[in-house]
Amino acid sequence: MRIVVIGANAAGAKAASKAKRVNPEAEITLIDRGNFISYGACGIPYYVSDTVVEVKELMSTPVGVLRDQVFFRKVKGVDVITETEAVVVDWRNKKVELWTAVSGTTSFIDYDRLILATGSSPLIPPLQGSELAGIVTVKSIEDATFLKEQAVSGKRACVIGAGLIGLETVEALALCGMQVTVVEMLGQVLPGVLDDEMATLLERHIQSHGVQVMTSCRVSCFEGNGHVEKVITDQGEILADLVVLAAGVKPNVSLARNAGLEIGATGAIAVDDHLRTSVPDIYACGDCCETTHLVTGKRVYAPMGSTANKQGRVAGINAVGGDAVFNGIVGTAIVKVFDFNAGKTGLSEFAARAAGYDVEIVLSPAPDRAHFYPDAKPIVLKLVADRENGRLLGLQAVGSGAVDKRIDVAATAITFRATAEQVSHLDLGYAPPFAAAMDNLIVAADILKNKLSGHAKGVSPHEVKKKMEAGEDFLLLDVRSPAEHEMMRIAGAKLVPLGVLRDKLDSLPKDKEIVTFCKISLRGYEAQKILNAAGFSNIRFMDGGILTWPYELEK
Amino acid sequence: MRIVVIGANAAGAKAASKAKRVNPEAEITLIDRGNFISYGACGIPYYVSDTVVEVKELMSTPVGVLRDQVFFRKVKGVDVITETEAVVVDWRNKKVELWTAVSGTTSFIDYDRLILATGSSPLIPPLQGSELAGIVTVKSIEDATFLKEQAVSGKRACVIGAGLIGLETVEALALCGMQVTVVEMLGQVLPGVLDDEMATLLERHIQSHGVQVMTSCRVSCFEGNGHVEKVITDQGEILADLVVLAAGVKPNVSLARNAGLEIGATGAIAVDDHLRTSVPDIYACGDCCETTHLVTGKRVYAPMGSTANKQGRVAGINAVGGDAVFNGIVGTAIVKVFDFNAGKTGLSEFAARAAGYDVEIVLSPAPDRAHFYPDAKPIVLKLVADRENGRLLGLQAVGSGAVDKRIDVAATAITFRATAEQVSHLDLGYAPPFAAAMDNLIVAADILKNKLSGHAKGVSPHEVKKKMEAGEDFLLLDVRSPAEHEMMRIAGAKLVPLGVLRDKLDSLPKDKEIVTFCKISLRGYEAQKILNAAGFSNIRFMDGGILTWPYELEK
Asked: What is the number of alpha carbons within 13 Å of residue B459 lying toward its C-beta?
């Protein structure tokens, strides 16, 4: 049995190796159009910033063995052909036509089963000047080498796109001492990952590292004399010695499409839960194919190195006659930018509303471990839930603390369709160096339960701001301590510290709407309960407190 | 409606506050025999080591407000009576008799609903000399103050008990510069948490910090002239200026038992899933009551600050007429000791076998993030699964890296009765600063799948050692590189690097059992597959590789 795998990165390399282990009789050939195989493209920003010193490390096993042709032959029992492109799949005759540019030769390879792992390519915006020298993507080892050469302290870089790769590259170039501007067409950083109020917290952090962030900004062209010098946008010109295109990726589907394989509505290769394409004996895995979002049940295009590895294993097993299933993903994404971590799993509020859910949300900032433990760092969680059944639909988390842990726990809970009630009772590990007695996620789930049951009534910072701007007659009640109020405050808010609220009820208007808030919203919620108990009826607390207020503060 | 809560720490304080929020009409009285209330006993070791500077921090909210009587009155609307012990519960007349030692007065309080949150007490071994000065437990604020005074650099401390609190205290005292010995009656550190091979890894780390670890060691008495000077054990005398008793805790049930409430087989107060005791209108929560282990379905005593908070909320809601449920725990525990983290969730292999499961295990060491990322630190995972259905029963994790994340994810997965297959496809967050493309847990679950399906055949380091000692005729095959072999090796193992194995098959005996291994077991598994494919039939790989070999190595 001969298995041919097209594409020798995460998915393809995994599929080939796994197929050989499952069926040692099988003859496995791994074909790649590039020179370098099985490298960690996700590591490129860390190579650029010198966090990873040698490019070889991105292409090596954890014990330092280079994953090259010899490695695949000797260790994995897999033949690798590099610098050779699969140009035509003739599935009726189970044959692939190959083109080797260096030798200028065409050849053919027969297969019993074919695995397409053709990956993705950076989107290149069709703008004038895109071909200028100094404009680069973040995908290949060649890109990595070029970026590292160009990342010179004091020079100017412009990164187009504030998505995951864009922001990782922003960090890398800034750490190299470059003056960095990031341009995002949409109105926030990490669109599609974070809701806007969460994105604002990240954006502030990025700006605090001297990076200029331009959102809702459209690039019209690039200018320069051979080498790029300027990025022209609808918000003005940006001088740039280096331009990085990080406006997203698209699946490489031309080989599949030309062969007549079904392409899904997402633009990626359509596969079933066994990663079979529409043509018998052809599988697809990794960045070239679509998958299922386990929350919505919809087909999505969500390329990710982690998913590629899992899918490679499944495709490899099935190609040699096994019966493995890949059900889908929950849309987890995570990124570190300077000293800030930001992650998402499941649906954002925006995505959940767009999908038609009746949504409840919680904004909950808190230290990531026992507050008295000196390493404790703040993180903000945003839970998104389905009001109908209390099911958790998504979690976003940002901050300098352990965001990744809460994202992974929520990804697991969402996979099992957990409700707020179930999340609030998870037996998560507790010791002061790791978490508070009530983990951030438990606290957030408890707030969610309070909201779903009607005990707690929240209002988002956005809505509060809108009410202010509309001149609505309501009282914004700050229940923090005088010392906290002194440090920073929201203009127009009245201070009545929680500790004296029960004694000062007479000073508050019973006929007016009152919005309570504190640092993080827990005292705000206590205040709501105290006021409700005292007969005030129109009380809400501001989600997330002053810590998630994305507008100006008096200091 | 009057709610009386006995015990004003985690569970009691939570229950009282929650009850008031749910029913502001209710009159809530919180009674504690101590002087200090609502403090974080789990923080004591960090106060002792000066990681936490002021004892006040352990009794304050995250914004620094002292959780004292005034706080509970003003903020929570709860009356607190301290230094007053509940001595008799007369449930027929719904009355509690109170004794206030300072004033020498007896009084009575009526209740409509009573919540027992009487907590736990350190076990004091009934040994001669236990009453000597300088012998202390780790429970009260008074203990904390005493320990901090006594923790003097250069002096000798002996900690009795190598459980969670014992080891946290060992770290604290060693960080203060004391010469520390820890004595454990059982054969390993963290008995009941870790299996022995995992405990060995932690024990080595503790020893590397200059702490003497004495396991399988029984204390017979304490000696000293008024103040403790020596701990006498069956392994000899230990000089000690300070002795810490950390041999576990027992639930405080005398009040409940004397009142005729049912005490469970675990010795703790029996409660149902609504935390109702056997007597109407009396609830119990926190360290004084038992709970259900969600894996075995059995009643267990598993006191933990995190559980106490969750149960307090449930008891508080139910006491004022609500309908909240606490289903149970999965036995999660975690501890930091010096630069090492150790955690467990679900069942250990030992506990799973004792419970009658047909067990499969995986030992999987790996870096906790992308191996090329400089902050990557090693962690070792041990998965325990049910062979019958592939369900994950437990995870243990030790190492200097992010153990807590994997424990929490596994705790969540185990709560939802996840199988190896489901765990292996979890959509966990991936970016190089947080995880490898295949997270440690995914890798371990894949190995588990390989074992459950019969593709991979493992043998534990323990079994290998036994085979060696029994003089069995088998070949131990090291498939690492010559450079790795040079650094450290298992005596008697033959070196054939994986990269040349396919070429050297003739040098290996086909009729003999071969046990393969590498650094972590992945190449060991590859070697097993290569040998199987070449017609060798009796091949297993050593679980966890040389990194989890708990015996001597040649260097």
From this structure: 21
Beta-carbon pairs below 8 A across chains A and B:
279
Q: Among A38, A63, A313, which Cα is nearest to B523's?
A: A63
Q: What is the pLDDT of residue A95?
A: 97
Q: Which pTM was predicted?
A: 0.96
Alpha helices in B425-516 (DSSP H): 440-452, 461-469, 482-487, 498-501
CATH 3.10.20.310 for domain A339-452, yes or no, is no
Class of the CATH-defined domain B2-119+250-319: alpha beta
Q: Calculate the alpha carbon distances from B431 to A32, A42, B142, B236, B332 in Å.
A: 24, 7, 46, 52, 27
Q: Can you give the length of chain A in residues?
A: 555
How does residue A327 score in pLDDT terms, banded at 50, 70 and 90? very high
> What are the pLDDT digits (tens) for B30-73?
999 998 888 878 999 999 999 998 888 888 888 788 899 999 99
- Could you report the predicted ipTM of this complex, rounded to two decimals? 0.96
Query: How is chain B split into domains, by residue range?
Result: 2-119+250-319, 135-247, 339-452, 458-548
DSSP secondary structure letters along B466-492? HHHHTT--EEEEE-S-HHHHHH-B-TT
Computed from CA positions of residues B396, B397, B398, B403, in that sequence, does the dihedral angle turn out positive or negative? Answer: negative
Q: How wide is the angle at C-alpha B285 spanned by C-alphas B280 and B288, nearest 5°?
A: 105
Fold of A2-120+250-319: FAD/NAD(P)-binding domain (3.50.50)
Report whether B360 contacts B406 (CB < 8 A): no
Instruction: Identify all chain B residues contacting A46, using CB atoms and an 8 Å cutoff.
Output: 372-373, 432
- Beta-strand pair A27-31/A513-517: unpaired
Largest CA distance in chain A: 90
Per CATH, the number for B458-548 is 3.40.250.10
Same fold across A135-247 and A458-548: no
Which of A13, A84, A363 shows the shortest CA–CA distance to A198?
A: A363
Q: Which of B124, B162, B129 lies closest to B143 in space, CA to CA?
A: B124
Task: For residue A526, list chain B residues with Cβ-Cβ distance below 8 A.
Answer: 21, 75-76
Cα A279 from Cα A91, distance rounded (Å) = 8
Task: Catalogue the active-site residues of A.
Answer: 42
Q: Does B482 touch chain A (CB under 8 A)?
A: no
Does domain B135-247 match CATH 3.50.50.60?
A: yes
